[in-house]
C-alpha cells in the first residue's frame, strides 16, 4: 500500500534536522504573513466588488475569481516545485502576492472592476502556493511526524487571522477618497516581507530521473482512501468559502458595520488555525477519518446557528464554528492524502487533490453571491448542507471499509 511504501523516508529527499527546523519556522512565519493575503481579499472583496461592479449580482465575483486563481494555478505551482524545487515556487507565489495588492490599489483609484478581478485572480494564485506550505513542512519526515509538522505550519494562520483584519481596519480610511486602497498597498508590502523569509527555505533537489516514476494519476485517484480525502477536503473548504464569501455582505445587508464584519472575519480565521497546535496530535491518536468527521459536524452546526438568527452574535458564532470545522475537516483530509502517495508521486498527487478542491470551491463561490442577492442569507445556509451530507456518507463508508 502507498502508506507502507513511503513509511521510510526517501533518501533523495533527505533534509538535515537543522534545515528542517529552519524550514518549519520559516514556513510557519510565512504562513502568518502570506495568509493575510486571503483574509484581506475575503474581508473586502465583496464590499469592493459592490462598489466597482456594474451590477449587485456581481459583487462576489472578485472572490469567486480568487478561488478560480487558486484552482488554475495549483498544477503550475506544483510543476514549478517538481522541476525547480519548492523554494522557487514559493518566490513566484510571493511575486503574485505583491502584484495582487498593487493591482487592487490601482483598480480602486481608476474604478476598474476588471482590474480588481485580475488582482484577486493573482491573489488566488498566491493562496494556492501558500497552501502548499503544509505539505512542504512534511518533506523528509517519517510518516509518524508528518501530521504534527503539517498542523504546526497551519498554526501560523492564527497570526494571519489577526494581521489580515487589523490591516483592513487600520488602513481602510487612510485615503478617505479611495476606501481600502491603502489596505492593498499594505498587503503588497506584507507579501514582499514573506518572500524574503521564504528565500531561506531549504528544499530537496529535484531528481530528473524520478520525474516520470510512480503510478499514474488515474490509479492513485481511484483509491477509496483518496476519494474520501478529496470529498472531505472539498466539503470542508467549499462550505467554509461559500459561507465566508457571503457573510460580510450579508452582515452589511442586515445593517451591521464594516468593523463588526472585520472582527467576525478575524475570529473566524483565528478559529481556522488555532486548533492546529494540537490537531496533528489528535490525528495521530484518533485517526484522520474521525477528525475529519468532527470537522464536518462542526461545520453543520455553524450553518444551524446562522439559521437561528441574524444578530452580530449569530454571525460571529457561525464564523467561529465554521473556522473550527474547517480546521479539523481540512487537516484531517490533508493527512489522508499523505497516506495515498509514494515519495516520487507527492507533487502530482498533492496538486491533484488541491485542484479538485479549489475547482469545486470555485463553483460554490460563483453561486454564493447570486444566491444571496436573489434568495437571501437563509437559502445560502440551507444549500450548504448538501456537500456536508455527501461528506458524512463518504466518511461512513470509508470507515467501515477501513475497519474491515
Q: Could you explain how this protein is built, in words?
A:
The chain is mostly helical. The protein has a single domain, classed as Growth Hormone, Chain: A. Helices cover 79% and strands 0% of the residues. It is built from 18 helices and no strands. Helix 2 runs antiparallel to helix 9, helix 2 crosses helix 11 and helix 12 runs parallel beside helix 15.
- Largest sheet properties: none
Contiguous runs where pLDDT drops below 50 for at least 5 residues: 1-12
Q: What is the chain-wise order of helices and strands?
A: HHHHHHHHHHHHHHHHHH
CATH superfamily: MFS general substrate transporter like domains
Percentage of residues in helical conformation: over 70%
Looking at how many chains there are and whether they match, the oligomeric state comes to single chain
Helical segment count: 18
Say what the CATH topology is.
Answer: Growth Hormone, Chain: A
Please name the CATH architecture: Up-down Bundle
**Which class best fits the helix and strand makeup?**
mainly alpha
Report the span from N to C terminus.
15 Å
Number of domains: 1
DSSP strand (E) fraction?
under 5%
Number of E-type strands:
0
Q: What gyration radius follows from the Cα positions, in whole Å? A: 20 Å
CATH class: Mainly Alpha
Amino acid at each position: 500500500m502507498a502508506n507502507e511504501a513511503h513509511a521510510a523516508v526517501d533518501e533523495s529527499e533527505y533534509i538535515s534536522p537543522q534545515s528542517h527546523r529552519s524550514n518549519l519556522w520559516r514556513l510557519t512565519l510565512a504562513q502568518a504573513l502570506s495568509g493575510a493575503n486571503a483574509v484581506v481579499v475575503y474581508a473586502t472583496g465583496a464590499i469592493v466588488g459592490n462598489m466597482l461592479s456594474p451590477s449587485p449580482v456581481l459583487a462576489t465575483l472578485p472572490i469567486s475569481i480568487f478561488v478560480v486563481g487558486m484552482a488554475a494555478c495549483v498544477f503550475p505551482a506544483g510543476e514549478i516545485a517538481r522541476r525547480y524545487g519548492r523554494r522557487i515556487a514559493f518566490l513566484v507565489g510571493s511575486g503574485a502576492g505583491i502584484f495582487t495588492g498593487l493591482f487592487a490599489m490601482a483598480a480602486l483609484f481608476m474604478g476598474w472592476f476588471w482590474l480588481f478581478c485580475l488582482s484577486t485572480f493573482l491573489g488566488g494564485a498566491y493562496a494556492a502556493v501558500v497552501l502548499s506550505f503544509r505539505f512542504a513542512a512534511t518533506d523528509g519526515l517519517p510518516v509518524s511526524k508528518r501530521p504534527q509538522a503539517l498542523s504546526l505550519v497551519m498554526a501560523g494562520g492564527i497570526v494571519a487571522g489577526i494581521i489580515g483584519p487589523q490591516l483592513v481596519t487600520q488602513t481602510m480610511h487612510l485615503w478617505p477618497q479611495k476606501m481600502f486602497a491603502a489596505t492593498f498597498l499594505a498587503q503588497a508590502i506584507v507579501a514582499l516581507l514573506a518572500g524574503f523569509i521564504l528565500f531561506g527555505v531549504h528544499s530537496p533537489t529535484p531528481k530528473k530521473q524520478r520525474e516520470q516514476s510512480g503510478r499514474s494519476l488515474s490509479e492513485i485517484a481511484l483509491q477509496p482512501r483518496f476519494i474520501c480525502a478529496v470529498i472531505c477536503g472539498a466539503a470542508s473548504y467549499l462550505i467554509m468559502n461559500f459561507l465566508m464569501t457571503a457573510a460580510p455582505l450579508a452582515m452589511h445587508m442586515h445593517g451591521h458595520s464594516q468593523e463588526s464584519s472585520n472582527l467576525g472575519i478575524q475570529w473566524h480565521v483565528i478559529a481556522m488555525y488555532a486548533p492546529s497546535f494540537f490537531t496533528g496530535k489528535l490525528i495521530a491518536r484518533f485517526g484522520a477519518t474521525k477528525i475529519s468527521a468532527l470537522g464536518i459536524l462542526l461545520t453543520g452546526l455553524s450553518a444551524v446557528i446562522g439559521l437561528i438568527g441574524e444578530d452580530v452574535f449569530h454571525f460571529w458564532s457561525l464564523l467561529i464554528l465554521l473556522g473550527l470545522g474547517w480546521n479539523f475537516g481540512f487537516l484531517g483530509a490533508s493527512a489522508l492524502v499523505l497516506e495515498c502517495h509514494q515519495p516520487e508521486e507527492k507533487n502530482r498527487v498533492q496538486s491533484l487533490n488541491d485542484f479538485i478542491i479549489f475547482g469545486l470551491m470555485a463553483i460554490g463561490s460563483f453561486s454564493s453571491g447570486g444566491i444571496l442577492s436573489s434568495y437571501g442569507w437563509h437559502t445560502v445556509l440551507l444549500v450548504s448542507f448538501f456537500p456536508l451530507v455527501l461528506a458524512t456518507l463518504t466518511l461512513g463508508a470509508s470507515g467501515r471499509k477501513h475497519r474491515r
